[in-house]
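[step 3/7] inverse_fold.run input=structure_tokens len=369
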């Protein structure tokens, strides 16, 4: 198959990582893949991975630029005999709607929902029935779409998966990572590390984690909280913790590329988000063998089965989160049980081989119509 992927990310986050890995997986399966990207950072990342770039600007947000990109994509994809167009963001979804309605694009156009704003749900979602298929990465997203007017037969639910080998570590690598991470951040060898990986932005709920950590420190010694990532909330969070007695134990690590190393060196991974569709960070922690505690929002309960492969806490409840952390840090047998089950689930289901197979199967069904 000849596949054109569209992604408008200006940085390397969840959507951009997903699109790159999807492209590589499809190429490995023998398909021809090109990608239209969102800017120089994503372009460099894709080219470094050996992915062909389509020279069409899909980053515009004005009506004129969106229409122009829709026309160019329809013409380019038809001229070059692409079988599938697979869009990863709202902008390219709108381009698909326009290309179908006004430029006669007959190539199956898929939009992959990685999470959208309330504005998009109110004003854009009902037009998505013009596209050939919408991929929802969780049952939660599927219900949100149907509740906002998307026909159920237009939606395909495909859970995310990651390349497990990118995050799997041996026992020796884990021991080495634990030593190295503690040395880097000047922590004692037996310090227990609670780690968050993601944007520092309001929807991610990081303030809930730091409040829970403050509570945890009242009864638990020799712990640290590692915040990996950057974002608009960094200064606000730093100001928030300045009055905390435990402020020296909360570490802002900034943007990092060595996520596997940091997860392997941690004792617990926490995702305190107020909204999630189907978190890639949780999948990474599962594969790395780091037990997870997460808020019970969105598609997260489809990933974490409480007391089987992780723990959930009520969204925005820092007291309950502190209790969950205390439980998981102070019961080594329970922690190992959760870790084992998470790794098994990763290898059996939450992996990119299964996910790409599901997407490939969808492509085939749409082409054969």
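[step 3/7] decode complete -> sequence:
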């Amino acid at each position: 198959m000849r596949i054109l992927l569209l992604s408008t990310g200006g940085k390397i986050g969840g959507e951009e990582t997903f699109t790159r890995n999807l492209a590589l997986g499809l190429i490995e399966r023998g398909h021809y893949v090109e990608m239209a990207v969102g800017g120089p950072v994503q372009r460099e990342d894709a080219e470094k991975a050996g992915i062909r770039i389509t020279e069409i600007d899909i980053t515009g947000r004005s009506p004129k630029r969106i229409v122009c990109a829709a026309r160019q994509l329809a013409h380019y994809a038809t001229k070059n005999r692409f079988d599938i167009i697979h869009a990863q963001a709202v902008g390219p979804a709108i381009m698909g709607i326009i290309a179908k309605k006004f430029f006669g694009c007959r190539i199956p156009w898929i939009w992959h929902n990685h999470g959208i704003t309330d504005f998009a749900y109110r004003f854009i979602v009902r037009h998505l029935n013009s596209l050939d298929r919408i991929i929802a990465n969780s049952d939660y997203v599927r219900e949100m779409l149907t509740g906002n007017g998307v026909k159920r037969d237009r939606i395909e639910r495909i859970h995310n998966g990651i390349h497990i080998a990118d995050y799997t570590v041996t026992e020796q690598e884990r021991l080495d990572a634990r030593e190295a991470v503690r040395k880097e951040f000047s922590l004692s060898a037996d310090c227990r590390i609670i780690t968050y990986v993601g944007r520092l932005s309001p929807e991610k709920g990081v303030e809930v984690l730091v409040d829970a950590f403050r509570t945890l420190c009242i009864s638990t010694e020799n712990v640290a909280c590692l915040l990996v990532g950057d974002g608009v909330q960094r200064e606000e969070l730093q100001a928030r913790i300045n009055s905390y007695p435990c402020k020296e134990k909360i570490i802002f690590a900034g943007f990092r590329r060595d996520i596997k190393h940091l997860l392997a060196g941690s004792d617990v991974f926490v995702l305190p988000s107020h909204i999630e569709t189907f978190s890639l960070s949780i999948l990474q922690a599962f594969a790395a063998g780091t037990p997870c505690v997460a808020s019970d929002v969105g598609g997260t309960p489809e990933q974490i089965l409480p007391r089987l492969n992780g723990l959930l806490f009520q969204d925005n409840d820092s007291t309950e989160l502190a209790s969950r952390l205390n439980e998981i840090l102070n019961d080594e047998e329970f922690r190992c049980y959760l870790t084992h089950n998470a790794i098994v689930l990763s290898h059996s289901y939450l992996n990119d081989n299964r996910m790409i197979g599901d997407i490939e199967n969808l492509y085939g069904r749409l082409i054969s119509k």
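[step 4/7] annotate
The chain has a mean pLDDT of 94.
The longest helix spans residues 63-79.
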